[in-house]
Design goal:
single chain, 4 strands, elongated, Double Stranded RNA Binding Domain, four-stranded mixed sheet, alpha+beta
Length: 107
């Protein structure tokens, strides 16, 4: 998994980088086929924003969250991302094990 972490109007400190890495390990634990993750952290006056683009095999997932606290925004971003990746994983495994469409078309 390649991680690209950037900040707009924000310097990425080692503490922020470590927090993002520890939270994204949860996503990596649930789904191994993550190719690339781009995370953009930005600050606008009183709003802290976190965005993520995750490239999977055959799909790209985009998630964004904002909050007054950057760490809370990162936490909610990873929760949303984890839900969407698990949903994608369930759909792809259901398609793989479902033979109903193949046999009905051949008959």
């Amino acid at each position: 998994m390649n991680l690209n972490l950037s900040g707009h109007h924000l310097e990425i400190t080692p503490a922020i980088r470590e927090h993002v890495l520890s939270k994204l390990s949860k996503v990596k634990r649930h789904f191994d086929n993550v190719i690339d993750v781009n995370v953009i952290l930005s600050v606008d006056k009183l709003k802290q924003k976190a965005e993520a683009n995750v490239h999977l095999s055959g799909k790209t997932i985009f998630v964004e969250c904002d909050d007054a606290n950057l760490y809370v925004a990162i936490d909610s971003l990873v929760e949303k991302l984890d839900r969407q990746i698990l949903k994608h994983k369930e759909k792809s495994s259901a398609r793989r094990h479902d033979d109903s469409g193949k046999h009905s078309a051949a008959e």
